Amino acid sequence: MSSNLDSAKPSKGARRREKKAKEEAAREQRIQEEQSNLVSDRMLENEKVENKLEPLGLTIQEIKPDGHCLYRAVENQLLLHSKGTAQYSYQDLRQMTAKYMREHADDFLPFFLAEGKAETGSDPSESFEKYCQEIESTAAWGGQLELGALTHCLKKHIVVYSGSFPDVEMGQEYKSGSGGNSAGDASIRLSFHRHAYGLGEHYNSVIPTESS
C-alpha cells in the first residue's frame, strides 16, 4: 500500500522543475509589470513635457539613445540655429566639454565631488581627470556638469525642459537681450527624460513645431 502512495508522490527532480517553473513565471510577471510601469511613466512624462512646449510653439525631436544623447541633442540645436550648416559634431562637443572642465577644474571639482562621481578612496583630482577622459573618449552619459561647460564653450543660453523636475536654465548671460554677443542670441533648448528608456535618463532636442 505504502509503495503505491510513494509512487504517486512527485520525484525530487519534478519538484525542482516545478519550483523553477514557478520562479520563472514570477520573474516574467515582474518584468512585464516593470515594462508596463516604464511605458506608463514614459507616456506621463512625455505628456507633461509636451504640455509645456505646445504653448511655446515647440515640440520634441527624438535623439538616438546611445550614450551621446546630450551631445547629439546640442549638435541638432546648433544645426537648427545655423540653417543646416554643421558647426560641431557630437564628438567635437565632447572634446570641448572635457577641455573646458579641465581648464576650470576649480569650478567643477566641488560639484563633481558633491554628485559622488569620484572613485572611492582615490585622489579627487585623479578621479576628475579620469572623468574628463571618459567624456572625450567614451559614450559616457552627460548631465548638468557637462551642460555647465557647454553653455560657456558655446556662449549659449541653455534651457532644459522636464516632466519630472523643474526646468533648468544655464548661461543667462548669453541669453538674447541680456547683453550677450550675437553667438548667444539663439538659445539651446533640450528636453530631459528620466523614464525614456530602461537604461536610464535621456536628452532630446526641442525644436519649433513647424520644423518637425
From TrEMBL:
Residues 1-39 are annotated as: Disordered. Residues 58-209 form the OTU domain. PROSITE patterns: OTU. It comes from the Eukaryota. CDD domains: OTU_plant_OTU5-like. Residues 20-33 have a biased composition (Basic and acidic residues). One of its GO terms (molecular function) is cysteine-type deubiquitinase activity. SUPFAM superfamilies: Cysteine proteinases. GO terms for biological process: protein deubiquitination. PANTHER family: DEUBIQUITINASE OTUD6B, OTU DOMAIN CONTAINING PROTEIN. Belongs to the peptidase C85 family. This is OTU domain-containing protein.
